[in-house]
Amino acid sequence: METTTIPKIFDEAKDFMPINGTDYLELYVSNSRQAAHYYQTAFGFQPLAYSGLETGNKETQSYVLVQDKIRLVLTSPLKSGTEIGKHIDAHGDGVKVISLWVDDATYAYNTAMERGAKHFMEPTLESDKDGKIIRSGIRTYGETVHIFVERKDYEGVFLPGYRSWTPDYQPSAVGLKYVDHMVGNVELGRMNEWVDFYKDVMGFAQIVSFDDKDISTEYTA
Questions:
Q1: How many CA atoms, within 13 angstroms, populate the side-chain half-sphere of residue 192?
Q2: How many CB atoms neighbour CB 48 within 10 A?
Q3: What is the CATH number of the domain that holds 80?
Q4: Residue 97's beta-bridge partner residues?
Q5: Per-residue pLDDT tens for 85-126?
Q6: Separation of alpha carbons 141 and 186, rounded Å
Q7: Burial of residue 33, with CB atoms counted within 10 A of its CB: 0-12 exposed, 13-18 middle, 19 or more buried
Q8: pLDDT, tens only, 177-214
Q9: Would residue 147 count as lying in a domain?
Q10: In a domain, 74, yes or no
C-alpha cells in the first residue's frame, strides 16, 4: 500500500488507518447556487467545479468552492422526495459528509469495518478521462458520514462527473487556510461512546476535554 509520510505528534494516535487530512466537506442545502454565492461573497471562496444537468447529473446540483486547502461541496436535490431533500427538511442546511483524504480508500474502509464501524459506501471506483478515484464510507454520529477519498491516480478538477466552474464573479480570498477543527454535536449521554469510536475505530487520540456537567472532547489523528 502506498503511504504518505506525516510526522507523528501525538504518541497516543494510532497508525493503523493513515489519514492525510480533510478532502472536502459536503453540505446539503436547499439552494446550492445561492449558497455558493454566499460563501463566495461572505468568505472569499473561489469557484472550482460543478455537477448538475449540464454534466449529465439529473439527481443533484453541486457547486464546489475552494480557498487554500479548504474545499466545500454545496449540494441540492433536483427532484422532490429524495433522501437529500428529506435531510434538508429535517435539519435545514448543514454538513452531511466529512470527507477524509487517504492513500488507500479500500484499506481504510475495511479497517474501519473490522474495528466496528457501520457501512455507508463500499469501495467504489469512479473514473473519467482524467483518471480514477476510489471512494468508500462509514457512518458516524447522527446522520453524518465519513467518506474516504483516494485520489493519487486522478488529475481532474475535483471528482469524476464534475467539470471546471469558472464564472466571472471571483472575489478575493479572505485568508482562510485549512480546516482547523470540526465540532460534532452528539446525542445526549453518548459522548464517551463516540470518543471511543474515534479512538478505537479510526485511531484518533484525545488531546483535551472540558467537563462541566456537559462534556466536550477534542481529539486528533
A1: 2
A2: 20
A3: 3.10.180.10
A4: 26, 145
A5: 999 999 999 999 999 999 999 999 999 999 999 999 999 999
A6: 6
A7: middle
A8: 999 999 998 988 899 999 999 999 999 888 877 765 55
A9: yes
A10: yes
